[in-house]
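Figure 6 in text form: structure in, sequence out.
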């Protein structure tokens, strides 16, 4: 069993389509006990009501108003009762053998973190999740896209106690995702599992909304000082999950 959590962007024509597709896809994943959405930007409560996901409006933020990674992960851990959690960016459609990846990862005698590359597409249309062909339709879309570089990470699958102590990074700003990988590997001695071949993560391309020189990006850089942090990516995986099996990368 697993719980998926995220925070949504304010709703407009572009974000409504992308985030509706994402939320509906998460609800279809085998073993999902629930989807938790945090934050209270414009239109988020209404979108959660339309899609039937749990909405928690209160969220810890940085001084600039960006969701705090530490606050978000801590609240999800307190609210859920499932042994495993999934954080996914709110515009990521997920499908594939997530339950199988968790079962395989749970068989090794150490904590685990499952990640994978996303597939970028210029446009993703509305998907009909009531249709029995939606997974095939999404898989066909994936064939038209391109894998994103291994340094960018859009979903994390992990045991609920893996991230009990995180800095208050700004979500979706400089290197927050690489820090989560480093923290799991270096602090928790977790096995890092690349599930790109088994889990499809579809993403509609959009320009970056906050740059390297933003206040939140600088704050994230400052928070890594003195920690020994080094950039770890999907390329540093110790194992791969594909075709129902977990194998070492070397």
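Output sequence:
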């Amino acid at each position: 069993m697993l719980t998926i959590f995220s925070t949504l962007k304010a709703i407009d024509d572009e974000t409504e389509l992308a985030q509706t597709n994402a939320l509906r896809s998460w609800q279809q994943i085998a073993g999902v006990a629930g989807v938790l959405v945090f934050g209270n930007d414009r239109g988020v409560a209404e979108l959660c009501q339309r899609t039937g996901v749990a909405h928690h409006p209160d969220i810890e933020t940085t001084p600039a108003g960006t969701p705090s990674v530490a606050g978000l992960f801590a609240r999800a851990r307190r609210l859920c009762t499932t042994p495993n959690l999934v954080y996914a960016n709110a515009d990521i459609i997920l499908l594939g053998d997530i339950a199988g990846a968790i079962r395989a990862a749970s068989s090794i005698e150490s904590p685990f973190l499952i990640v994978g590359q996303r597939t970028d597409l210029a446009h993703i249309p509305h998907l009909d999740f009531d249709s029995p062909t939606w997974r095939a339709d999404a898989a066909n879309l994936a064939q038209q896209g391109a894998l994103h570089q291994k340094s960018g990470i859009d979903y994390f699958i992990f045991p609920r106690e893996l991230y009990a102590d995180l800095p208050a990074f700004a979500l979706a700003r400089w290197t927050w995702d690489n820090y989560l990988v480093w923290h799991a590997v270096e602090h928790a001695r977790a096995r890092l599992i690349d599930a790109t071949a088994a889990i499809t993560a579809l993403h509609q391309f959009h320009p970056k909304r906050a740059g390297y020189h933003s206040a939140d990006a600088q704050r994230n850089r400052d928070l890594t000082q003195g920690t020994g942090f080094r950039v770890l990516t999907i390329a540093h995986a110790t194992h791969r999950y594909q075709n129902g099996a977990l194998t070492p990368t070397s």
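Caption detail: The mean pLDDT is 93.
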